Predict the 3D structure of the following.
Amino acid sequence: MIVENLSRIRHAIGDRSCELVAVSKQQPDALIDEALASGLRVFGENRVQEAYTHWEKRRLLFPDLKLHLIGPLQSNKAEDAVALFDMIHSVDRPKIALALGEAMRKRGKSLPCFIQINTGNEPQKSGIGFDALADFLHFCRTEAKIEIIGLMCIPPVDDDPAIHFAAMQQAAKNHALPCLSMGMSNDYETAMQYGATHLRIGSALFARRMKG
Ligand SMILES: *Cc1c(COP(=O)(O)O)cnc(C)c1O
């Protein structure tokens, strides 16, 4: 039951000011509706097209809905992304930053964004290295003219996530960025110890748990 999963996660969050982004990618309609019925209003999707399928109609019924794009974006989808979403977690290259900035000005809608960091330098993952952060941040602000509020990462599955979260916390501090999008189903409690402000949680929220 989503309500039970949700109360367990909320209990872990406690009184921290940490936003729970419910990751609804690949979830059936019945569970998305169950999540809405349980009071959740902030959702994350990793693909623009699937997000439209899930949310285009539902957002008319729930005006307080907030949608976060957490997956990689192609520049030809920037306008669709800006039209649907309220926040972007996955800005990772100049072309995307420029396309987002242009789409935001066109629609008169400004979306706070995160820069995605590939903390483990994994070739299959999106994101920039910490060494490129200062230049890219400057580019986003001065050339693309988009608002960067923080950093996002997905740590390598086989590493201790704490090392990656600690490096993220330090980088955010160095650049005076207030937000950190980190922590998923298996590591969100660790992420909170390192200052996570946005948890992206899918399976721990939507999965049916075995009764022991
Ligand atoms: C799927 C996904 C999540 C949620 O993962 P869970 O382990 O199911 O909580 C978080 N962030 C991103 C970018 C994702 O693609």
